[in-house]
UniProtKB/TrEMBL annotation:
PANTHER family membership: GLUTAMYL-TRNA(GLN) AMIDOTRANSFERASE SUBUNIT C, MITOCHONDRIAL
Swiss-Prot/TrEMBL keywords: ATP-binding, Ligase, Nucleotide-binding, Protein biosynthesis, Transferase
Protein function: Allows the formation of correctly charged Asn-tRNA(Asn) or Gln-tRNA(Gln) through the transamidation of misacylated Asp-tRNA(Asn) or Glu-tRNA(Gln) in organisms which lack either or both of asparaginyl-tRNA or glutaminyl-tRNA synthetases. The reaction takes place in the presence of glutamine and ATP through an activated phospho-Asp-tRNA(Asn) or phospho-Glu-tRNA(Gln).
Entry's Gene Ontology BP terms: glutaminyl-tRNAGln biosynthesis via transamidation; regulation of translational fidelity; translation
InterPro entries named in the record: Asp/Glu-ADT_sf_sub_c (IPR036113), GatC (IPR003837)
Enzyme Commission (EC) number: 6.3.5.-
Entry-linked Gene3D superfamilies: Glu-tRNAGln amidotransferase C subunit, N-terminal domain
Family indicated by similarity: Belongs to the GatC family.
Subunit structure: Heterotrimer of A, B and C subunits.
Protein name: Aspartyl/glutamyl-tRNA(Asn/Gln) amidotransferase subunit C
Reactions the enzyme catalyzes: L-aspartyl-tRNA(Asn) + L-glutamine + ATP + H2O = L-asparaginyl-tRNA(Asn) + L-glutamate + ADP + phosphate + 2 H(+); L-glutamyl-tRNA(Gln) + L-glutamine + ATP + H2O = L-glutaminyl-tRNA(Gln) + L-glutamate + ADP + phosphate + H(+)
GO function terms (MF aspect): asparaginyl-tRNA synthase (glutamine-hydrolyzing) activity; ATP binding; glutaminyl-tRNA synthase (glutamine-hydrolyzing) activity; transferase activity
Organism per entry: Leekyejoonella antrihumi
Length: 98
């Protein structure tokens, strides 16, 4: 397992535009090296017989069934509109394009 050097941590901090003191660089170099080791350990787990999945828990559709039911007609829907035109809601123009 390769260890991260203090210079590598300083370079990453510079790329992220994070100002770190010398003590912080020393501390983070050790911590990041441990994290890289943990990630490497996860890669060593035998998962050959585990099927790929998109989600760890089974999912079910929680939407209601699509059932046709009575609704407002155009006149009822437009009755409360401040302005209507050609059986549609009329709204102020927001773009200058024709």
């Amino acid at each position: 397992m390769s260890s991260l050097s203090r210079d590598e941590v300083a370079h990453v901090a510079m790329l992220a535009r994070i100002n770190l003191t010398d003590d912080e660089l020393d501390t983070l170099a050790g911590q990041l090296d441990q994290i890289v080791g943990f990630v490497a350990a996860v890669g060593e787990i035998g998962v050959e017989d585990v099927p790929p999945m998109s989600h760890p828990l089974p999912l079910s559709n929680v939407t209601r069934p699509d059932v046709v039911r009575p609704s407002l007609d155009a006149a009822e829907a437009l009755a409360g509109a401040p302005k209507a035109q050609a059986q549609r809601f009329a709204v102020p123009r927001i773009l200058d394009e024709e």
